Amino acid sequence: MKPRIDLLTGRPAGGGARPRERADAARNRAKVLAAAAELFAARDPRGVTMEDIAKAAGVGRGTLYRRYPDTVSIAQALLDEHEFALQERLLRGDPPLGPGAPPGDRLAAFYAGMVDLLEAHISLVLGAEQGELRFTTGAYGFWRAHVRTLLIQAAVPEPEALVDALLAPLGPDVFAEQRRRGLTPEQITAALARLAHGVTR
Amino acid sequence: MKPRIDLLTGRPAGGGARPRERADAARNRAKVLAAAAELFAARDPRGVTMEDIAKAAGVGRGTLYRRYPDTVSIAQALLDEHEFALQERLLRGDPPLGPGAPPGDRLAAFYAGMVDLLEAHISLVLGAEQGELRFTTGAYGFWRAHVRTLLIQAAVPEPEALVDALLAPLGPDVFAEQRRRGLTPEQITAALARLAHGVTR
DNA sequence: CGCGAAGTGGACATGTCGTCCGCTTCGCTG
DNA sequence: CAGCGAAGCGGACGACATGTCCACTTCGCG
């Protein structure tokens, strides 16, 4: 069902040893990612098409499809490193983001980190999570597991149903709408912190 | 920017007196809505196309476009009456859904009502809120105003930012994902009730 | 019954998608 | 360094959806 490709190299994620990437392929991949980053930032990320990216990168459409099945995958490839950095800090960083603080504080810190990420890369996240793909992403699974653990630590009843409800405000469309309304990232973070503490208390 | 059409009659929402709808037009409108309702229920609502509906209803595409600019409008027309019924109960129904109960209880009751609505008409809601249209709907404005009022009554700080965060879990994609995960409407309602009370306390 | 207007529906032009396949470029090997 | 097999490339192609347009039909009022 899912394409299941390695987002770093854009190759099918089979376990075996890779044949090593050819020079022209690497060159084109760089061109594609650079062009895509500009396009996503410049206009409505949801309107960017494979053709657009191919033209901007100066490659043919076939070349694009060789690695990425759609624009969503390209946006995800660009987003990947940023998400990974936050995941690292959640697992091994200092409290309250990392381990050691009370669950409510950690949840609030997670919210703050996500708001920062959204603010910095909203166009990529919008490009990466359009459609119903949002929940099938590896990243969503990670956020979900993290919040779920915090809820269980806080001994909250019905953690399973609460997890998705607590992640919902981090949907890129919600964030974009709030920013469009004139809310600052700080206000949004403050509101989410209240949510975090209200629910874990 | 927005089409701004009257969803009941499908006509442009100009204030003036309408010329009255012709018999063949009414007949076709009924056929279209009936066919669309079946289609939305039968397959993935996001995959239903104008062509599909036209064919199923036995009318031409031009006829469809005369009233509805896209499938989203059709889904909204079908959804409209259900949403309106809930809105009535919020304004004039018995507590805790209607006025008279503490804000936390009213918020929880609102959540419960929305979960019922989602459970009953998830395919329509999915069809109606695809894309970024979700926040521009009249209904979203209503839910937002309602929750905002409750938050202010509860003397919650930062109500503006919290409103959208509290509405986010009601997004159709979130609900669909939770159901897909095996959660029951009751479990979801319970989790949202906890959210409601946690935040207004 | 006749006429003007509202309504109809299919053809058309446009744009995106995803695939396919002949040609090019690479890099290993002898 | 020359040759070869394979990986990579890119434009052409068929399929499909969109939204518009306009010649034709149907309505309902006088």
Describe the structure in your own words.
The structure is a homodimer of 201-residue chains. With 201 residues, chain A is mainly alpha-helical. Helices cover 66% and strands 0% of the residues of chain A. Chain A has two domains: 23-70, Arc Repressor Mutant, subunit A (Orthogonal Bundle), CATH 1.10.10.60; 72-200. Chain A is built from nine helices and no strands. The longest helix of chain A is centred in the middle third of the chain and has 26 residues, at 103-128. Chain A is elongated and about 55 Å long. Mean pLDDT of chain A is 89; it is low at 1-17. Chain A binds chain B through residues 46, 131-132, 134-135, 156-158, 160-162, 164-166, 168-169, 171, 173-174, 176-178, 181, 183, 187-188, 190-192, 194-195, 198-199, 201, and chain B through 46, 131-132, 134-135, 156-158, 160-162, 164-166, 168-169, 171, 173-174, 176-178, 181, 183, 187-188, 190-192, 194-195, 198-199, 201. The structure holds a DNA duplex (30 and 30 nucleotides).
In summary, what is this structure?
The structure is a homodimer of 201-residue chains. By secondary structure, chain A is mostly helical. Chain A is 66% helix and 0% strand.
**Overall pLDDT of chain A, averaged?**
89
How many individual β-strands of chain A?
0
Instruction: Find the structural class of chain A using helix and strand composition.
Output: mainly alpha
What is the helix fraction of residues of chain A, given as a range?
55-70%
Number of domains of chain A: 2
